[in-house]
Amino acid sequence: MGVDQTEPEVPEDAVGRRVSCGGERATVRYVGPVPPTAGLWLGVEWDDPGRGKHDGSHEGVQYFTCSHIKGGSFVRPAKASFGVDYLAAVRQVYQVDTEEVLSEEISISDKKLKWWCVEERSYESLPSVILSRCEVNGPGDDGEIKKTTPNVQWLDMSGTLLSCWEDVAAVTQQLERLEGLQLSNNRLRLTSDPSTHCQAFSNIKVLALNSCYLTWPQILHCAPMWPQLEDLCVEENNITELQRPEDVLQSLKSLSLSSNPLVQESVLSLSALPRLEQLNLSNTGLSVIRFDDAAPGAPTEMFPALKKLSLDRNNITEWCVVDELAKLRSLVQFSCRGNRLTSSDRNPKTANQILIAKLGRLVLLNSCEIQPEDRKGAELDYIKMFGEEWLKAGGRSQPSAQFISQHPRYQTLIDKYGAPEEGELKKPEPFALKNQLLKITFVFPDAGERKPIEKKLPATMEVQKVKGLLYRLLKVPVADLKLTYTSPKALSPAHHLLAPGGQVKEQRVSR
């Protein structure tokens, strides 16, 4: 059988180009015949390896290789789209309603920007262009982008068919006002000399490269292209061991490495970034972090500008990690949801109080503002919580080094509020049933001849079961029992009604 003459023409530089097949993205690794079948085939490596069938081989012949053992397929050229240029994509997206982008929200990194109305309805007036999942493959004719969309400040080209950084630079160099660039879900070949593209990205301040299959050395290789970069988001990549950025990324204020399998000992490689204010290390497998340059309670020289740190969904279980974070001199916002930091009573609220007390400068914890009264309450409770331990460690004279290392802020809190008194100390009770029993005296005001009955009952015992107990003791129908509860701890006369589930409802009685 001869070659189907209706097959579309395949570009000469097809190998290495990005294609779309049935909505899925892939990279062309081979162009040519695959005997015994007739005609031309494209050997592609899928972004989603679950879409593939083999490793690039057929009947014992290796036509191309894949990073995944079943990440490859052979497809006919007619099934693959090599995409369109930037301006063709802009016209496809905005030809029906040029105003659409003017009311759209564009997300770059974690920032959402809503654009206000622009008087002139034209491509020239567009302040942002969103081409996410469009089949953009390059710039098109020289100079046309600069003439057609000159005022674009924010550009989203995530999940496109751009193949390399040269293609991206050919677009961005014509957008002189561009500040934010979203390139997530692309597979971009590295450029051999990144410094030659500095001008193309000279005004970029915000860059998102999530899910781009990048390693940290590759990011550092590209970094000379972004001389003014302030916000870099590289979530869900192949970043493992971090190396120190040398003469690159020095203007960076925000960095998100969330959802990368980091080598935790290498995190300190980022500590010398002089302007870094926000760092997201969520879901990176971290369990330990140490600043050995500083003694317990003393400030570290590392991360000098860091104000906001996110460690959500990690493996942090030890409070010593929090004591290390207290050494960060600028930290005011901290998030650590989804870890296993627990207090002795297993109460999440108590754990939050310990966090507030240990990290004295915090303004926000887990995105919640810390009010002055909350801080004071947390710090006073912390003093009481560990007061007995402090006394045993020689607290009134000089606490032991071990206590100081475990509670670096304790002395500061005593200086602020005073030492705890013996009667204030919160002594943890062993968790045993006998410690959970309440001594209850049943009295019968309407039957004076009955003597009071004393019983020890679990604090969690439901009212219905209490009534059942009384029925067995008194032989009074449950429906006829009316219970009130008077607490000896009440500061003023009060009656308490026992409610189902063991809850106590208090009713005040006027004199």
How are the SSEs placed, and which strands pair?
Layout: E1 18-21, E2 24-32, E3 41-46, E4 57-58, E5 61-62, E6 72-75, E7 84-85, H1 86-94, E8 105-108, E9 111-114, E10 128-130, E11 136-138, H2 144-148, E12 154-156, H3 165-172, E13 180-182, E14 206-208, H4 216-222, E15 231-233, E16 254-256, E17 278-280, E18 308-310, H5 319-325, E19 333-335, H6 348-358, E20 364-365, E21 368-369, H7 372-385, H8 387-392, H9 401-406, H10 410-417, E22 437-442, E23 453-458, H11 463-474, E24 494-498, E25 504-508
Parallel strand pairs: 7-11, 10-12, 12-13, 13-14, 14-15, 15-16, 16-17, 17-18, 18-19, 19-20
Antiparallel strand pairs: 1-2, 2-3, 3-6, 4-5, 8-9, 20-21, 22-23, 24-25
Tell me about this structure:
Its main location: cytoplasm. InterPro entries: CAP-Gly_dom_sf, CAP-Gly_domain, LRR_dom_sf, SLRP, Ubiquitin-like_domsf, Ubl_TBCE. Belongs to the TBCE family. It is found in: Cytoplasm. The chain has eleven helices and 25 strands. The chain has 511 residues and is α/β, with parallel strands linked by helices. Among the domains are: 17-79, CAP Gly-rich-like domain (SH3 type barrels, Roll); 84-285, Leucine-rich repeat, LRR (right-handed beta-alpha superhelix), CATH 3.80.10; 437-485, Ubiquitin-like (UB roll) (Roll), CATH 3.10.20.90. The strands form seven sheets. The protein has an eleven-stranded mixed sheet with strand order 10-12-13-14-15-16-17-18-19-20-21, covered by helices on one side. Strands 1-2-3-6 form a four-stranded antiparallel sheet, with no helix packed on it. It has a two-stranded antiparallel ribbon with strand order 4-5. Helix 6 (348-358) packs across helix 7 (372-385) and helix 7 (372-385) packs across helix 10 (410-417). The longest helix has 14 residues, at 372-385. It is elongated, with a radius of gyration of 33 Å.
